[in-house]
Design brief:
Blueprint: H1 2-8, H2 22-34, H3 37-40, H4 46-49, H5 57-74, H6 79-91, H7 97-111, H8 115-128
Length: about 160
């Protein structure tokens, strides 16, 4: 899914596109690797949405804090551990985004009910954080990497 995002952005083929927020990318990469093929289909719509989400450190930090809070929300029985982890993040200059994605998947694995919908809602929230600051592209993205088959008429002869 993130490789598709790199292609849509016109970047070299990579699962870490430069135009994608590291926090969002981490969550989507980890979740994409963990889920089955049926649920993975729901992630493809995000390939285009995540292009251009890389933002300021403040926006990335806000997204990281939201993921951290979500992880705590999904593991209500472990409030003490959550408080300690959140405190550790507060002491660090910047939490490692790849760790957030892995921890998010661990929280989903422990919950086991309604979690797919909740993960998609979390990704939607992450996309909305800082969305008002995202510049609109001056030109539409090129679609050279995507081949769309043309539909020719069944018959080319008149009448």
């Amino acid at each position: 899914m993130m490789e598709l995002a790199s292609m849509l952005a016109g970047e070299p083929f990579s699962d870490h596109p430069a135009s994608v927020c590291p926090v969002i990318g981490s969550c989507l990469r980890a979740y994409n690797d963990w889920i089955d093929d049926d649920r993975r289909q729901d992630l493809y719509r995000y390939a285009a949405q995540v292009v251009g989400t890389r933002a300021s450190q403040d926006v990335q930090r806000a997204r990281a804090e939201r993921v951290t809070a979500w992880i705590g929300d999904t593991t209500r029985r472990r409030w003490t551990r959550f408080v300690l982890v959140r405190g550790m993040f507060a002491l660090m200059l910047w939490p490692q985004p790849d760790d957030l994605g892995s921890r998010m998947v661990q929280a989903v694995a422990r919950r086991r009910r309604g979690s797919h919908r909740e993960v998609l809602e979390l990704v939607d929230e992450l996309l909305s954080i800082g969305n008002q600051q995202r510049p609109l592209p001056s030109t539409p993205p090129t679609m050279s990497a995507i081949v769309v088959p043309s539909r020719a008429p069944a018959s080319t002869s008149p009448g």
